[in-house]
């Protein structure tokens, strides 16, 4: 290895596409994210990685709880973009979508969603521009048997782009 980083190599990683949501002092907010993964089985723990400057990260740090809604392959680009390209500081992202509140008081999007998980934060780790929130799952539910939207399909089929704050924004330069 010559020490160079070829973004095409990173594009081979497999990702899903999710809405990570939280609430603080009555304000609901969520954002599209691709950096979500299950870490352990007993207890079930998840990690979500968000840009420190994003409103969702700010609220999640205060609330110390989050939900993850898994996008279905049928999710249209404008619906995904509602959670990915507008700030919740100025826009109510939940105003025009179906959602329900969980036992922890978190919103889960039920429209274009295959599954949802809610978790309480047990650890936070700073990684340069991003913060990793590690949460212990408190509930999980399957909402649909529809196929999930992968991050590769978001780019390849839907021709979507990554937000500048996304860990995968480097992939935007690879598109024609």
Q: How would you briefly describe this protein structure?
A:
With 176 residues, the chain is an alpha+beta fold.
Description of the molecule:
- The chain is built from four helices and nine strands.
- It is globular and about 50 Å long.
- It has a seven-stranded antiparallel β-sheet.
- The protein has a single domain, classed as Roll (Pnp Oxidase, Chain A).
- It has helices at 7-10, 55-63, 77-84, 151-156; strands at residues 18-24, 27-33, 36-41, 44-51, 65-71, 99-101, 107-109, 113-127, 130-142.
- It has 176 residues and is an alpha+beta fold.
- Strand 6 and strand 7 form a beta hairpin.
The biggest beta sheet, please? 7 strands, antiparallel
Shape: globular
What's the mean pLDDT score?
89
CATH level 1 name: Mainly Beta
Radius of gyration: 16 Å
The oligomerization state is single chain
Number of domains: 1
In the predicted model, the low-confidence regions spanning at least 5 consecutive residues are none
Task: State the CATH architecture.
Answer: Roll
Class based on secondary structure composition and strand pairing: alpha+beta
Helix percentage: 10-25%
Beta-strand content bin: 35-45%
Fourth-level CATH superfamily = Electron Transport, Fmn-binding Protein, Chain A
Count up the helices: 4
End-to-end C-alpha gap:
27 Å
């Amino acid at each position: 290895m010559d020490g160079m980083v070829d973004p095409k190599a990173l594009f081979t990683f497999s990702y899903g596409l999710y809405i990570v949501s939280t609430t603080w002092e009555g304000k609901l907010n969520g954002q599209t994210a691709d950096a979500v993964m299950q870490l352990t089985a007993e207890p079930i723990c998840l990690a979500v990685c968000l840009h420190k400057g994003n409103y969702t990260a700010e609220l999640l740090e205060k609330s110390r709880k989050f939900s993850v809604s898994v996008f279905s392959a049928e999710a249209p680009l404008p619906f995904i973009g509602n959670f990915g390209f507008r700030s919740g500081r100025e826009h109510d992202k939940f105003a025009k979508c179906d959602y329900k509140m969980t036992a922890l008081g978190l919103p889960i999007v039920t429209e274009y969603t295959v599954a949802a998980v809610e978790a309480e934060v047990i650890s936070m780790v700073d990684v340069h521009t991003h913060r990793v929130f590690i949460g212990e799952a408190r509930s999980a539910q399957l909402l649909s048997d529809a196929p999930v939207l992968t991050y590769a399909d978001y780019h390849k089929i839907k021709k979507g782009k990554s937000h500048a704050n996304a860990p995968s924004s480097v992939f935007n330069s690879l598109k024609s």
